[in-house]
Queue: 2 jobs
Job 1
Amino acid sequence: MPAPAQDAIVLRGLSKTYRTRDHGDVFALQPMTLDLAAGSFVALVGPSGCGKSTLLKILAGIQKPSTGEALIHGQPVGAARGDVGVVMQSPVLFPWRSILQNVMLPVNVLGLDTARHRTVAMDMLKLVELEGFERRYPRELSGGMQQRAAIARALVTDPKLLLMDEPFGALDAMTREHMNVELQRIWMEKKKSVLLITHSIPEAVFLADRVLVMSPRPGRIIEDITIDLPRPRPMSLMGSPDFGRYVAQIREIFQAQGGLDA
Amino acid sequence: MTMTETRTPADAGSPARPSRLAGKIRDWLVTLGCFALTIGAWEAAVHAMNVPSYVVPAPTEIVAALHRGLSSGLYLRHLSHTLQACLMGFAIGSLIGIALGAVIASFRFAELIVYPYVIMFKSMPKVALAPLFTLWFGLGITSKIVSASIICFFPLLVNTIAGLRSADEDRISLMKSMGATPFQIFWYLRFPSALPFIMAGLELAVVLALIGTIVAEFVGARAGLGTLIQIQNANMDGPGQFSVLILLSVIGLTMNVIVRKIKKWVLFWDPSAQGDDPGTQI
């Protein structure tokens, strides 16, 4: 693609305020300015309720910011449909659609060429190791398999940016580690920009080039840490001293903030 | 009776099946045995106490009346009038209920305008409108169809609105993130989410449609099973009335079973729709 080297995400004074009946205006996000390089893997960690999901919803076009603007590849959010793939905490599959039909949903919504994208969808299912499950229905698959189908769905329109909100939060520890390795592999293969929201500091360090740490509500970014570890990162890296140092560094920031749930 | 207790050689082969089959046979024997006993007691009581047949006829008289009515073609003629009105009323009332429900659930102004009337009519016993329909639409099929459709309309309206609103919040968010239009969200998400509610409404409505039709026929019609019952009642034809009641329950049950089959087929993805529990469904 001839697109200029443009930042994947640009935030200019973006903030979000909720108007509530009992407590007046509640700040979810303090005005925020940020540039995320295209092709990078950025993780956002922060305590519950710090507004990180709000930020993701604004970037996904689900909510509107109160002030400021968000640009995705130089365009305002919502201008380029199909340029952003979203993976949520739960798989959010449609039970009446087969796995293949679920993966094809963005193609149907965007009115893209069905025949051509069916091949793409099958390739994506192969990528997430769900080959042979395309005609099954979601309830026939385990939680981890459903979440992988959700990842295939987010990839089917070949978006330049993947937004992931706690995508592995509901999985058991073993499946989660496996999915982390898989996600790294997919990212290295597809060269997308990824913004990953997570509660898990080790997950953030393992996957990201850059970890942004958010303060408790009202959320703002208090640290921006570059993770300088070679790729592909093997599972065994989690036991290395370098890895441990990054995790400890981020944990200390949390403790200084009084955040306990990390 | 002794015939049913013998096992076929095919079943004797496998160890697991005969016991399950024997259990099934035993269940059926209990049900059929008690049924036979009840009918026998009824027959005996009617003869022993000399109950006049226009009050409570003996089962044998009812069967004879049913046979007479069916073989002469009289029942089938009336049945076709009733069934035609019932099915048309069911289809029209359900479709309007679903369509209006979709409009109300999708557009707030529609809700503001229409809902007061809906609330008002909802709690009214719809069968009480039947005399008016006869006055407005005469003794033909029209007043029956209107009566049946009015009574079908409400469960579908209410269930469609509830169903369309039941769509999962995360799924709505996901579709918005894909850039889906409100119509796409309706078509790909809200409508399928509403199908379990709509099918439950249809299951209820098909029985209600029969009630609406029969009431309309009671109030005034030239033909139909409701009309037939009134004629038989005036003629003190007890066996005739009972035989038509049996016919009506067979029709109601058949329609309900068909709708439930359709429901299972439509909701193939919904495990909670696959259970078969005739006792609690009606």
Note: Strands of chain A lie at 9-20, 24-36, 41-45, 67-72, 75-76, 84-87, 161-165, 193-198, 210-214, 221-226.
Job 2
Amino acid sequence: MTNPQDIRSTGDAAQLRASTDPEANPVLGAAVGDTNTSTPGGDPENISGLELIESLSRGELLRRRFLRSTSAWFGMIIFALLVLMAVFGPMIYQYGPFERDLRNALTGPSMYHWLGVNENGLDIFARTLQGLRISLVIGIGTAFLTSFLALAVGIVAGYVGNKGKWGAIADGGLVNLINLFLVIPSLLLLMLFSPVLQQATWLWMIPLLAGFAWMLTARVLRAMTQQLVRTEYVEAARFMGVNPLITMTRHIIPNIASWIIIDTTLGVSAAILGETGLSFIGFGIQYPQVSLGTVLQDYNISAPYTWIPPAAVLAALVISINLMGEALRDALDPTSGSSRL
Amino acid sequence: MIRFISIRLLTYVILAFVATSFAYLLAASLMHPEEVLYPPAATEPVPHQTAQLYLNTRNINPDTPLFERYANWLGGLIRGDLGVTTGTNKSMVPVFDELKTRIPISLRLIVLGTVIGTALGIILGMVAAVRRDSLGDRASTLLAFFLLSLPTPVIILIVQQTNQLIMDGTGWGLPAINPINPLLEAGSWESIRYQIKALVMPTIVLALAAAASYSRYMKVTTLDVLGSDYLRTARAKGLTRGRAMNRHGLRMALIPMGQYFAFAVGGAFSGSLFVELMFNWQGIGRFVISAIAMADVNGTAGVVLYTAILTLISATFADFLQGALDPRIR
């Protein structure tokens, strides 16, 4: 959130700091603290007397803003409950996700089958909890991998873009690659790849989903990097002969980090939705494993209990992640309501 | 303007061609049509000669080099021939004919759903932005948030289940499966009425899914426009809030939406795939699911070509809209 246009003189800052109690006014306190860190060693005799007043660090500020929103709390509590259910679920259920109880097929919730049994005699409670585990692992894994891929492609394309002819060609190539991925519905390509890779292990689902999810984020990151490359401090670093890799990690990534964090959070829910859709049509998670999409596949309209539990768990999972993501976005965005003084 | 559109069009044609070729090569190298030909349960092996002949006439012989098969397929593509369906279906139906009968069924869904969804999303998004923090804004934002958190199959299930509950309660409901009723005489008023009734639920699903994401984007772009200088100038000249928004704001807010629309058709295709599967419509979506499951290389490539053309048309349309809306491009 460091705004390059926002340059205050140290005199102003000192005056502000003197008139502001950081405890009562954390935002302003931190903003003042920022100016302080960005000009290290500037005018020692002016600052020395005021150094005693401590200001909030950026992380602390973010934490406070995040925790201030109710939706963040809702999201965190639901998500924590779901994770606990996924972890401890297998200790509770009486029937395994693949144990067939055909005698009770298509019966509603009972003492033995807490959420009922589907047409094939499979216990819905056990399957939902097992599916929740797989969906969680796939969602979180895919989100991290997607962000990494998008970061790599986006930054390289944005950084290289104005570095002579070859840079422009490389940038153009990457942009067209992104567009190419957007032309074919990724669902079709996922359906092509998934059965082949599933033969090895279900974990292949993570790189597969990530491979088709990084494009839009990469486009945004490229645009952001292009703006940053033109700023004075990146130019200065370049003229000082700093290695491009170091410039990227030290000057560019910290500036786009907030966006990446939000995108990773929301990417978890996107990955879960993608995996569910794919499993639902039978091209996702295969037999020895079960995901929420596979559980939904056995729906029966005349017996709502066959699909409501997995759908509810899925909705709770995605909604809780989205709530946290939105709260994070609000916390990181200086123009949003949560940063009001 | 014409130059701008023709350059864009050329890029899209190249992109569509590359995408389809890429998909053909992928399908041809990843799928094993010969395994479908020799099911493991077969007691007597198919004679080698017969098998080779079978695979060669369909241009799916794994012994032929990949690029030779690709060249054959390309030759057919230039003549307007997409090859024949393979897999367990032995009747060699041309993929083109198969697509021709199925495209109207799918396109009906996609076009109706996208048009209604876009219109609804734009109106809701704009109203939410203009009347920020009103009851309507809160309700529509919450609904969009909720819908975007559900996968399409769950939205379909909710709609179908609601219909079922109404049907159980009142005895009147919409048909949940099949787009046409084969028992009714084709072309009769009864049959047409059934078709329209069958179209309602799938359209609701697709329109809801589209409207949810469009309204969000529209809200963001409209909020940007509302804070802009030219709108303040327009208000300062004495235009009322509504007039200023209609004459200056709406146009600028729609420009970024055009680019989003171009790639949203891919999403509509995925959505219609679930709809076709769960409402039992014999459209492109069902065809591609069975084609991939049966290792039908030509059929899969044909569907990818269709989606690429669909994206191409919508992207061109979006560019055209952008050219019409944005005076800076003209």
Note: The interface with chain B takes residues 176, 179-180, 182-189, 191-193, 195-196, 269, 273, 276-277, 280-283, 293, 296, 299, 301-302, 304, 307, 311, 314-315, 318-319, 322 of chain A (CB under 8 Å).
